[in-house]
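Recap quiz, item 2
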Amino acid sequence: MTNLMSRNDLLLFAGFTLVVLTMPIWLAPFGAGYPDLLQRFMIFGIFAVGFNILFGLTGYLSFGHAAFFGVGSYAAVWSFKLLTLDAIPAILFAVIISGLFALVIGYLCLRRSGIYFSILTLAFAQMSYNLAYSVLTPITNGETGLQLTLNDPRSLDAVLGQSVAGQPVPNLLGQPLSGYAGFYFCAGFLILAFFLAQRIAGSPFGMMLKAIKSNQTRMQFTGFNTRPYALSAFVISGMYAGLAGALLAVTDPLAGAERMQWTASGEVVLMTILGGVGTLIGPVIGAWLIKYFENILSALNDQILARFWSFLPDGAADTMVAITGKFVGDGWFLTLGLVFVIVVIFLPGGIMEGVRRIAGMFRRRSGSSPATRTQPAE
Amino acid sequence: MTNPNVVLHVADVHKRFGGLHALADIDLQVEEGKTHAIIGPNGAGKSTLLNVIIGKLAPSSGQVVFDGAVLTGRKPFQINQLGIARVFQTPEIFADLSVLHNVMIPALAKRDGMFKLNMLRALDSETGIRAEAEDMLEDVGMLARRDMLAGSLSRGDKRRMELAMCLIQHPRLLLLDEPTAGMSRHDTNTTIELLQKIKARGMTKVIIEHDMHVVFSLADKISVLAQGRIIADGSPDEVRGNPKVQEAYLGGTH
Amino acid sequence: MFDVIFLQFLNGLDKGAAYALIALGLTLVFGTLGVVNFAHGALFMLGAFCAVTVRMLLTMETVTIDPEQLSPWGSPLEIREPLVQAWLGDFGAVLVNYSVPLSILITIPIMLLVGIALERGIIKHFYKRPHAEQILVTFGLAIVAQEVIKSVFGPNPIPQPMPTDLRGAADIGAFLGMQANIITYPIWRLIYFVFAAVVIGGVFAFLQFTTFGMVVRAGMADRETVGLLGINIDRRFTIMFGLAAVVAGMAGVMYTPLLPPNYHLGMDFLVLSFVVVVVGGMGSLPGAVAAGFLLGILQSFASMNQVKAIVPGIDQIIIYLVAVIILLVRPRGLFGRRGVMEA
């Protein structure tokens, strides 16, 4: 391993793995140590890591990645319905289907760059979303959403003589994937996804992606055909999105078209930016923070706020409840929007840039590095 | 007319922009191993000509042939893969990457071709390419800056790095678009020395330049462009003595 | 057959007019400031809610409970008295009836202020930053705007009645000398189309015939040169952003009787208007207007049952499909210039 990865990369990977696997323990005091939320942390972490390969490394801002997420979900549910309730075939199927879908859409969209690329991805995603709600109802089951039923054929399970009693649920080699089993299942995929992203970022291929982001003209005159590079990045990130969508279907086997809406694409952009675009760990942190605060803030209501502000005199407490009440519960998106605007204005590199700046401040104070230090790369 | 030593042949090229005849009847033959300078006053069509050679602009008629291959209609990366490298007037570099990576990328393009999906291979294991890039940086005197971000280099250093990026591919033909534009006298002289060093290696070069000092220190052959036409063609001494050239160009500056 | 086609053509006009108005503002902002404004749909939505607010204010009433009289349900009768009517009598009733068009008078200054505040406060710091960051910050602003509206007005659409005199349909067929009642068209839609045409004409005339407009047009073509002339282009651009906000806001106000506004109205229209702008050609004002009407009308034709029978689902995707085809075949849009926003 060491000859394949640098010491720093290895440390980062080991640290990341440790942090992920111990999440149920260290997140418990924050009120997030339950499997349902932790699974979402893993799933959207994968989505954001994959999105970053396209946007962060290659510099193409896609506003349509939710389409691949949604396709992954539909594909996984169809695998549960037609083949088997086992999760692994469903995930493989979903990743392949979303990869093919990304190949077609990416091939077309990458003929343009800049804002035109963004609008093209947006247009394709909206088409997928609108079609999923209308003519593709036989495949997507429209507004109801695609779900498992007892009468599904499940041909593979049937051949193996397995049958289900009651509501069918996805499993792994016969073991149910509910609760913490589901979390560790998803966590394994996040760790794998992170590992692959790390390898990609540290490979010659990854360097080419960064070079494309930095200067397409020079890339062309250097003898590289940039399009297959960008297309590979697009397909890889589409497959990541499909994997995330499939995992969501594993934990909750109901696929609906709303997962494909462009606001869902916007969400993964927010995650990536908030955490730190172009960094490995930033998008994961962004995904975790958004899902965490979505969970916490949207659950708050006026009674809880009233208790929180009860140390204030009555009038002041009521005012504070009224004000803060706008930012929690249904108003959580307002908070998200404000935080996002502030981050883009003051900290375009996201949380990771904040961390770097603070670390830089400490380093300067301790005087361990000379003031004339040149700016190092990466 | 066919000279076996000619490696680049710009044959009867015309370029019109609307009513403007930007290039008229251009015929240029660049010989292997020679440094061929194209000079001319501003607006003479020098950059247009370079863009036609590199495939960025399509000529209205005529064609550009490099070593038997027609360049017209090919994409920049295909032209590069044929062995043509280009230095831009404003350095085109990967500003967000380190100097070392900037130089490794063209080396990888030379080795791997226009696309390779080597996404699981570690960059750190490319020791051969790395050593090659470091040698190249040593050559242009920039090894000490290898870990800096390319974007933070001075203009002169950016130019030298860009040159290194071209040279590491060992191109058969190097196109230089005003390699000393905007440089201080000192930087200009270092660049000339560097280019003379390369010249000793026998690489074919086409230089577009309007600094006479640079042109006469480097060129084996000079073509003078004025108003989209070649008005003189020959060795530096021939060109210097040509009354047409003095009238059109040198007269104004000397 | 002609009447069916003509009717669909008319049906596309009002939606097309709304697209054209939003796209016009987007293009003004992009052409002058070079900013990709994802918050532009939110401005349309804010305009619509200006109309909602005006009507709420106009229809405020006093409620007095009269214990002497009983309602049919046996509870004391509530006597509601609209304040405006109490103060102004019949004129008040006219005000309430015409609340939507009247809102425009209030919307113009409000949207101008909103636009200028937005530009001075946030957008101007993004002129030099990458387009991706412009998209992101305005996207964030759009979220903030729609969530503020949601928390004030609630999540449900709030219908706005059109003035009673302007309800019903005009018999355009008869007007054009055809049989009566074959081609009828709602009057308000007709008004919306005329209104849009007037606004679009006004904006073009403003740019064409005033010195201010001339400077702005020159700035759109070549900002640096105009800056070198010593003209303070920035102040004019601020006003252009305000103007774009006013156009979007007015478009929103007048659209309320056709579509009850809710908080995500802006986002719904934004995606479509961006598609419109790109189809028209980024930075081209005539392109934005033409593409707006074109796509509105195409959408109307695609919703015909005869068309849907041939290509199922076409009504859902027609606009995006056209956008994709145009972008791939004519990358700079119908009227676009070379080199705009390529990188």
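The two ends of chain C are 47 Å apart (CA to CA).
The first helix of chain C runs from residue 2 to 33.
End of item.
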